[in-house]
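Progress note, project year one: complex with aspartic acid.
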Amino acid sequence: MSLIVQKFGGTSVADAEKILAAARKAIRAQRDGHQVVVVVSAMGHNTDLLIDLAHQVDEDPPAREMDMLLSTGEQVSVALMAMAVHALGSEAVSLTGGQIGIRTDSSYTKARIRSISTERIVRLLSEGKIVICAGFQGIDEELNITTLGRGGSDTTAVALAAVLNAESCEIYTDVDGVYTTDPRVLPEARRVDIICYDEMLELASLGAGVMHNRSIEFAKKFGVPIHVRSSFSDIPGTYIVRESESDSSPVSGATLTRDEARVTVFGVPDIPGTSLRIFSAIAERRISVDMIVQNVGRSGKADISFTFPRAELKAVLAAVQPVANDLGAGRVEQDDQVSKVSVVGLAMARQAGVAQHMFRALADAGVNIQMITTSEIKISALVDRQHAHAALRAVHSTFQLDQRPNDAKTWDQVRANQHQHPDMTKLVERLRSDQLEALTLTGIELDGDQARITLLGVPDQPGVAAEIFAAVGDAGVFVDMIVQSIDSDDGRTSITFTVRRNALPLALKIARDLQQRHALTAVQHDPEIAKLSVSGIGLRSHTSVAMILFRTLASAGINVQMINTSELQVNVVVASAQSAQALRLLESAFAEYLS
Ligand code: ADP
Ligand code: ASP
Ligand code: MG
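Model obtained:
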C-alpha cells in the first residue's frame, strides 16, 4: 500500500476551520487508498509569540528551555488535528517528536536528526489510523526536547517520508507552489512546475523561506519527490525533483536575504591557520557564514570579510573579537544594514557571462555592490539594505524569470524518472541505520589549470564590476570564481577572479587596459594556483566542513588564498606547488564522510 506524508504549515492550521479543512485532505487521501502520515506546525504565529514571551521573561533564555517552550506549539496542533480527524469520522493518533522516536543531537534550537524509529508509526498505519506527527521537534540521548530550527517542520516531514519510503511528500502551505522569488516581495514572480533539488537547496539556504533548506538535503539524499501546494485549493503546485525546469536558462530563481550582516577583520597576518582560527570560532557556534572574502595579502596582512544572518551578529562578534586580538589583527568592523541578493541556477556553470549580466542589471538600477561571491551554481551580491528590493527586482527582470522558458519541462514529463539513483543505495542504508542528517560528501577534486588576477583600488561605484566583467567576457574569457571586497583605507575595493591558465595573458591585457582607464592602484596575478573542490549535500549548513578543511590545510602549512561556498561545493584556491599534497590530506581528512 502506498504511503504519503502531508505537512501543514502554521497558516494552514491557524484556526479550527483550517484544521478541519486539513483533516479533510488527510481523510480524502486515505479514502483514495493511501496510508497517511500528517506532520503539523504550530498554529499561526504561535512560535513567534512563544519566542516573544520568552524574551519578555529572560533577555537571553537558555537554549534548552527555549526548545522545551517552542515544542509546545506543535503539541497543541497535533492534538487538535487528531480531534478533527476523529470529528470527521476517521481514526487518528497524535504523536510528539519523542513518541515518534525522532532522535537528534543536543544542539538546542538547531538540532540535527540522527535517527527515526518507524515501528510505532508503521503499526498504527497498518491499523488504519492516520498518524499525526509533531513537526520541528525531537529528543536527544538524554530525552531532552530539542527543536530543528525555524521552519523545521518541513524537515520532519521529508525525513519521515524518507525513512518510511513514502511515495511522495506533500507540503501544504499558504502559497500555491515555489516561485522564481518570494511572490510577496515581487508580485511578478512566476510559479514553476518543477525545480531540482540542488537549486531548491541553494535557494532555501539563501533565503527562499518556502522550504526549510535541510528538508531538501533529505529529499535529495533519499530521492523523495516533494510537492509544494496550496492548503486552500486542490490545484497542483510545484514538484521538487531531480531535474531542472529548463536546461538552457542560466538562472532559475532569485533570493533576497534581507537581514544579513557583514564583519570585516582588517590586518590579519596572512599566514596559514589564521582563517582557521576565525572561522572555527564561528563554526563552533553552529553559525553558517556565507560570503567569505579574503583580500590577497599585501605586506603580509589580509582583510577577511564574511556575511551571516543579522540575528547572529552578537554571537559572531563574541566569537571573533578575542581571536582577532589574539592574532594581533587590526580593527573588527561590522555592518548590519546590508542585504544579500543571489541568483541560482544549475545551468550557469556551463555558461559564460552570467555574472556580468547580473552586475550590469544592478548598475543600471543604480545599486552599488559592496561584496561579490560566486560559486558554480550561484552568484551573490551584498548591497545596502535600502536598495535590496530594487536589486532583487532588477535581477529578476534581467534574467526574465517572470517568463516561462521555451524548453520548460512539466511534472508529467519527468514523473517516470523519480526513482532512486542506483549508486545511492549503499549510502542510504548507512544513513538510515546511523545518522540521517550526517554530512554526506560525493567527492573531492583538484583543478590544477587555474590562474588568478586581482585588481586593486577599484572605485566603489555602481557599474564598475559590470564594466570589468563585460570587458573580460567580451574577449571570450571564461571567469570561474569572483570575489569583491572592501579595502581597508580609501573606500576602494578589490576584485579577484580566476580564469583558465591559458587565458591569463589575454585576461591580463584587459586588466591592464582597465587599470589605465580607471586609475586602479595595481594589477596582480598568479599563474600558479589550483582549485580544490569538496562536493556533497548541505555543505554550507554543515559548519564542520569549513572547520575540517581549514584545520587540515593549516596544519600542513598550506595557505588558503580564496574560498567560496555553496550547499553543493566548497572550493578553495591554493598554490599549485601545494595542491597535490592538499588533495591527499583532504581525501584522508574527509574519508569517513565520502560515500
Ligand atoms: P508554512 O507556515 O506553511 O511553512 P512559510 O511561511 O514557512 O509557510 O512558507 C511560505 C512562504 O514562503 C510564502 O508565504 C512566501 O511568502 C514565502 N516564500 C519565500 N520565497 C518563496 C518562493 N521562492 N516561492 C514561494 N514562496 C516563497
Ligand atoms: N513552528 C516552527 C516555526 O515556526 C516550525 C515550522 O513551522 O516549520 O519555525
Ligand atoms: Mg515553513
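The pocket of aspartic acid (ligand 2) is lined by residues 9-10, 41-42, 47, 73, 135-136, 150-154 (CB under 6 Å).
The chain has a mean pLDDT of 92.
No further modelling is planned for this target in the current period.
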